């Protein structure tokens, strides 16, 4: 059973084939870890899932039309992110918009894939991820889009943090809360499109939610939280690629399993810290990050 799943013969030679994927994993770890901090702070995991469905539809349409899949994925993600950002200002409205967009995007994606007559592996890769097919042109798209996301996050990091933690006070002090919210949704759309290329549309939450959620169990520090989130995302991403390289199973189960194990470990550490230092009226170091809806 073990040998049917894993085969690490000639592993060193195989590493050379996934060099681009390892670089892509570093980019996705950075993007997913940093964007995930705001996904947790702003309570947006459901939005990530909704955007990934439109990203799946865009990538499927591009596959059917024979054009760049990354461009199609980005187009679908941005359309979904803009719709959620514009129509779903309040949490209740946002969830309703996502609930409408998500099945629509999934249905479109299934339709496009059913019309596609090419290799079945291409269809499967959009849903569950792939590591071998990251070629130089796709790597250039990933690198360019990652730079845009990281620069955008760097520009809005401080006011977006303020607006995420206490939007009423931030708005009273002149912070453009609504504009920042829409800007972050577009950045999130780009981040989702990036992650879909490697882990697939079905499991993108493992990179954009789980690492930041795990880090939030350990610290509320505005410095340590993004650092730990990036470290956890990198461990899950690179570890998943290295395990999938010697296996017949796609990459996504490894990435999601590693991310889940990291989250469980953080919960255990938090529980032990809570037992040793009972909570006070001021809270404890293990208090999770505040979120708003």
TrEMBL record:
Keywords: Membrane, Transmembrane, Transmembrane helix, Transport. The keyword Membrane applies. It is a multi-pass membrane protein. This is Metal ABC transporter permease. InterPro entries: ABC_BtuC-like (IPR037294), ABC_TroCD (IPR001626). It comes from the Bacteria. The chain crosses the membrane at residues 20-41, 62-85, 97-118, 139-157, 177-210, 222-245, 251-269. Belongs to the ABC-3 integral membrane protein family. The keyword Plastid does not apply. It is found in: Cell membrane; Membrane. Its main location: membrane.
């Amino acid at each position: 059973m073990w040998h049917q799943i894993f085969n690490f013969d000639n592993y060193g030679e195989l590493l050379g084939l996934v060099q681009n994927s390892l670089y892509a994993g570093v980019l996705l770890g950075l993007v997913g870890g940093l964007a995930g901090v705001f996904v947790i702070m702003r309570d947006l995991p459901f939005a990530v899932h909704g955007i990934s469905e439109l990203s799946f539809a865009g990538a499927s349409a591009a596959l059917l039309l024979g054009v760049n899949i990354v461009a199609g994925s980005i187009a679908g993600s941005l359309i979904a992110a803009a719709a959620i950002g514009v129509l779903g200002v309040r949490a209740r409205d946002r969830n309703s918009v996502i609930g409408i967009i998500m099945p629509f995007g999934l249905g479109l994606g299934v339709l496009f894939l059913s019309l596609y007559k090419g290799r079945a592996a291409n269809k499967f890769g959009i849903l569950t991820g792939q590591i071998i097919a990251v070629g130089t042109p796709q790597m250039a798209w990933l690198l360019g889009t990652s730079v845009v996301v990281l620069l955008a996050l760097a520009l809005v990091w401080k006011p977006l943090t303020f607006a995420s933690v206490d939007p009423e006070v931030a708005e009273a002090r002149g912070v453009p809360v609504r504009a920042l919210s829409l800007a972050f949704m577009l950045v999130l759309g780009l981040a989702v499109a990036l992650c879909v290329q490697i882990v697939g549309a079905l499991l993108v939450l493992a990179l954009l939610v789980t690492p930041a959620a795990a880090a939030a169990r350990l610290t509320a520090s505005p410095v340590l939280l993004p650092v730990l989130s990036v470290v956890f995302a990198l461990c899950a991403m690179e570890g998943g690629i290295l395990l999938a390289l010697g296996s017949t199973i796609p990459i996504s189960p490894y990435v999601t399993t590693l991310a889940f194990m990291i989250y469980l470990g953080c919960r255990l550490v938090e529980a032990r810290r809570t037992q040793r230092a009972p909570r006070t009226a001021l809270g404890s170091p293990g208090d999770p990050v505040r979120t708003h809806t």
